[in-house]
Amino acid sequence: MSTALPVVALPTTGGCADVPVLKERGQREVFCGLTGIVWLHRRLQDAFFLVVGSRTCAHLIQSAAGVMIFAEPRFGTAILTDRDLAGMADANEELDRVCTTLLERRPEISTLFLVGSCPSEVIKLDLAKAAERLNARLLPRVRVLNYSGSGIETTFTQGEDNALKAMVPYLPASDERQLLVVGCVADVVEDQFRRYFEALGIGPVRFFPARRAADLPPVGPGTRLLLAQPFNGETVRALQARGAQLLPSPYPFGGEGTTQWLAAAAAAWNVNAEHFRQVTAPLQARAERGLSRYRERLAGKRLFFMPDSQLEIPLARFLHRELGMQLTEVGTPYLDRTMVGAELPLLPETTVLSEGQDVEKQLDRVRAVHPDLVVCGLGLANPLERDGIATKWSIELVFTPIHGYDQAADLAEIFARPLERRERLAV
Ligand code: SF4
Known about the structure:
The structure is a single chain. By secondary structure, the protein is α/β, with parallel strands linked by helices. The chain folds into 3 domains: 22-27 and 288-426, Nitrogenase molybdenum iron protein domain (Rossmann fold, 3-Layer(aba) Sandwich), CATH 3.40.50; 33-154, Nitrogenase molybdenum iron protein domain (Rossmann fold), CATH 3.40.50; 178-268, Nitrogenase molybdenum iron protein domain (Rossmann fold), CATH 3.40.50. The protein is built from 17 helices and 14 strands. The protein has helices at residues 37-43, 55-64, 82-85, 91-105, 118-122, 127-138, 158-167, 187-200, 233-241, 254-268, 273-298, 312-321, 337-340, 359-369, 378-386, 396-399, 408-426, and strands spanning 22-25, 47-53, 75-79, 111-116, 143-148, 178-182, 205-208, 223-227, 245-246, 302-305, 326-332, 352-357, 373-376, 390-393. The strands form 3 sheets. The protein has a 6-stranded parallel sheet, with helices on both faces. A 4-stranded parallel sheet has the order 3-2-4-5, sandwiched between helices. Strands 7-6-8-9 form a 4-stranded parallel sheet, with helices on both faces. Strand 2, helix 2 (55-64) and strand 3 (75-79) form a beta-alpha-beta unit. The longest helix has 26 residues, at 273-298. The chain is globular and about 60 Å long. The N and C termini lie far apart (59 Å). The relative contact order is 0.14. The structure holds iron/sulfur cluster. Iron/sulfur cluster binds at residues 32, 34, 53-54, 56-57, 60, 117-118, 150-151.
C-alpha cells in the first residue's frame, strides 16, 4: 500500500500563514446565531428549535426562513413578554408549559433545542436548568438540549457550532476506527461524499450532525475528524477532548479543494495512490470543466470579503486558485488557526487578512480599493450597490449546497451572477 497520494502537493507554509492580521474590535454588522436554525432544522429532520426570545427574534427567524410558511415548521419562538422581562411572571413555568404543549402536538420530535437569545440572557433565564428539568420528565422519548444563539454572544454561523457542541456530551463513547465528517451539509452532498468514501475504501464514515438528531455518532480515540464547515471550532475542540483527532485539510469547495479534502482522509486510511487517482481524477476533471466558463468571467476580478460567515478564507482560496480572482481583503469574524490552518498558506501573501470588524473603517477600505465584488451581509449590500460596487449576500452561501465536485460550478455561479447583473445594468 502506498500513502504517497498523487495529488498536487500544496504549500503548508508561506502565503498568508505568517502575514500580520489586521485585528479590529469595533461595531459589527452581522446576523446573530439564531440564523443557523434555518439550515439546522432542514438537516435535523426530527429536531425542533424553540427560540426563547422576543418578537424581534421571531421576526428574524420568520423572515430568514420565509419559505417554511407552507409547511409546519420545526422552529418557533416562545416570546418573552413585558411581564417576563419585568420579572412579574415565572418564565420557567411558562417555558415548561409551552414545551409540554409543543411536544404533545408534535410526537415526531425526538430532540428539542431551547435556543437562548439576547432577551433570555438579559433576564438570566437559565436554559441549562430548564433543559435538565424537562429531561427529567421527557427522556428517553425526547432529549432537551440548550445553546445560545444570542447576538450578544454569537455571530451568524456560531449558532451551528453551539448547537453541535451541545450534542457532543451525549455522543456514545467508542474506540472504533471511523471517519467523522463534522458540520452541516445538504443531504445531497452527504450522499455524494458517501459514494466517494466508499469508492476509496474509507470507512466507516459518519456525519455529525446526521439527518436525525437522535442518531448520535460515537466518538473516541479511533475517530478521525474531517471538517466540512470552518465555523465549528468549539465543537471540534469538544470532540478532541473526547479523544478524536483532526485531519487538517482545505475544505471541500471546488474541484481541487474537494480532492485535497478526500486526500486527507485517504492518507489516514492508507489508500493506494493509483486507486485514489482513478477515483478522484475524473471527478476533479468534470468539476474543472464546469468551472472553466466561470473562470473566463471571473479571472482578474477583484474581490473583498466582509467578515460574516467564517466561510471567507476557504472560499477566497477557491475563488483565487480555481477561478483566478484577485483577493483584496479577506475579513473573517474569528481567525481560528485550528480550523483554517491548512487554508492560509494557499492565499497569496498580498491579501489583507482581517479579523473582527470596525464597520465604518472597513467600508472606507472597500471604497478606497473599489473592488469588483464585495461579499457581505444583507445590511451592507444596499449602500455598497449605491456606490457602484456589486455585492453578494453571504447568507446564500449557507443556504445553498456548495460542497463537493458536483456543486463546484454552482458555487462559482453564486459569485458570477452579481457581476453579470451589474454589467447588464451598465449597458
Ligand atoms: S437574539 Fe438578539 S440579535 Fe438575535 S434577533 Fe434576538 S434580539 Fe436580535
